[in-house]
Give the backbone structure.
Amino acid sequence: MDHDRVFVVMPAFNEAPAIEAAIQEVAASGYRRIIVVDDGSDDDTYERARAMGGVIALRHMLNRGKGAAVKTGIEAAKMLGAAAVVTIDADGQHNPAAIAGMLALIDQGYDVVLGSRLKNPKGMPFHKVAANLAGNGVTWMLYGLWVTDSQSGLRAYSKRAVDLIDARTDRYEYDTEVIREIKRHRLKFVEVPIDVRYTAYSMSKRHKMNLVNGVKILIKLLISGS
């Protein structure tokens, strides 16, 4: 796939300590159409991203949630003529080396490629494994579609997928809604194992997915009737 038509979307909230290294690693992997969406950070995440050469830096004035940031980035990519969109976390947990294989699967006809931490959970903290398994169960009960990592932030989407997916929630429940949209539109999807690098920095963040947030997601999805 032509890398000039691949856009990498990075939702970011208070990621000043990590954002520059995360951007550099994505660019070093050959992907230079990078859209960083700062979701109302109260540090200088936006300024640091904006100063990086070639990066499209967008900003929510208020913190709206990870899902809202992803949706803003995807809409921007669509306006710029994206043939494929990859979403990746801005804290450096994901290895961008996985992107090439994911895009190869998009080229082969898949609409969505889901990076899965649970296919290779080595080094993943037990409480995160448990929380993700619970989230997978909730996703299956709501939508009848089993995936091994319903909350992964590393995903690749074809143009068809980004045109069809219509997720309405703005926070972590967005990731689960995407699974509903895969089922609703009969999108062809596949899961691939990914490596996740857990650092003291990433583990210290309070706004990452956890069991409490998982319960909140379930309540919101049930109330909204998604």
Q: What stands out?
A: Residues 56 and 135 are 32 Å apart (CA to CA). Residues 3-224 form a domain with the Spore Coat Polysaccharide Biosynthesis Protein SpsA; Chain A fold (CATH 3.90.550.10).
